[in-house]
Amino acid sequence: MEGGSAFAQFIPLILIFAIMYFLLIRPQQRKLKAHRAMVENLRRGDQVITQGGLIGKVSKVKDDDEIEVELAANIKVRVVKSTVAQVISKTEPASDAPKA
C-alpha cells in the first residue's frame, strides 16, 4: 500500500509540470520557430523594425547572418538578422520570367 500512496503524492507534481509545459514552454517554442522563419525569409526591399526600434528598408542581405538596413536616404547600417523584431511590409519575390 505504501507504493501506491507515494505515487499518488507525485500526481499533482506531474500535473503542474504538464500545465507549465502547455502554458509556457510550448508557446515560446512556437514563437521562436516563427521568428526564425521570418528572419530566414528576409529579402531586399522588406521594411523592418529592429529590436532597438529602428525602422528601415532592407537594402542588402548578407550570407553571414547580417543584413544592411537603409534608415534614410544614403544612411545604411549593418544589423544582425536575429535582431529584427518585425517585418512591416514584404516585397514580392522577383520572377525569373523576362518581361515583354
From TrEMBL:
Keyword Transmembrane: yes
NCBIfam families assigned: yajC
Subunit structure comment from the entry: Part of the SecDF-YidC-YajC translocase complex. The SecDF-YidC-YajC translocase forms a supercomplex with SecYEG, called the holo-translocon (HTL).
Topology relative to the membrane: Single-pass membrane protein
Primary location group: membrane
Pfam families referenced in this protein's UniProt entry, alphabetically: YajC
Transmembrane regions listed in the UniProt entry: 6-25
GO CC terms in record: plasma membrane
Entry protein name: Sec translocon accessory complex subunit YajC
Lineage of source species: Bacteria, Pseudomonadati, Pseudomonadota, Alphaproteobacteria, Rhodobacterales
Subcellular locations according to the entry: Cell membrane
Protein family according to the UniProt entry: Belongs to the YajC family.
Biological role: The SecYEG-SecDF-YajC-YidC holo-translocon (HTL) protein secretase/insertase is a supercomplex required for protein secretion, insertion of proteins into membranes, and assembly of membrane protein complexes. While the SecYEG complex is essential for assembly of a number of proteins and complexes, the SecDF-YajC-YidC subcomplex facilitates these functions.
Keywords recorded for this protein, A-Z: Cell membrane, Membrane, Protein transport, Translocation, Transmembrane, Transmembrane helix, Transport
GO BP: any one term: protein transport
